[in-house]
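User: Structure please.
Assistant: Input sequence and predicted structure:
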Amino acid sequence: MASLTCYVPDFGDEKVTDRMNTFYPPTTPYGPYSDRGAVKNKDGSDYQVTVGFIRFDTGGLPNDAVITSAVLRLRVLAKANIDSRNFNVEWYSNANWPIDDGDYVLLVGTDAAVIALSSVPAADDWLELNLSTPTSVSLTGNTGFRLGISGGQPTAQNVFAFYPKNTPSTSDPELVVTYDSANYANKVLGCLPATIAKIMGIPTANVGKFCGV
């Protein structure tokens, strides 16, 4: 078993679609940011919804890798949780880049991870999320995610923000992937019948019968 720590590509394309209006749901694009995370806020008469996008260079994984786990590590920049919301993370195909208005949604999915904002650690600590269906990690190119805050119309601030790439580099987002080699797994599976036979005292010549073949 081995692991690989993956980082945001050098071209630095963490994107956020930030929309603000005096009504909910907001519809007017407000602009892209690289230093935000996920937001659902009400500030005076203005509503704000921010959806985050981030992808990691996972092309360094072996072609025969069998992914066993994946952990998303984000260093917390700020959080707020007035409405008892969740931070949602969904797998988001690399094919969706470059990000544009069509990628904006009011409610992000949770097929990768979900955590209550109340459980997010304090600023400057690391949030580590064990991702569901780690086999969604791409063995070629990049692996992407869409990030958001749960729920509908907010009453005040609900925020999860993380340090983006190179601010500083010791705080870069990370995707830690643990994997086995498919060839190694096959070799292990291939020797199991003989190993079990030996433990059970079955003669080696009868291993085929033991395996039911």
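The first strand starts at residue 2 and ends at 6.
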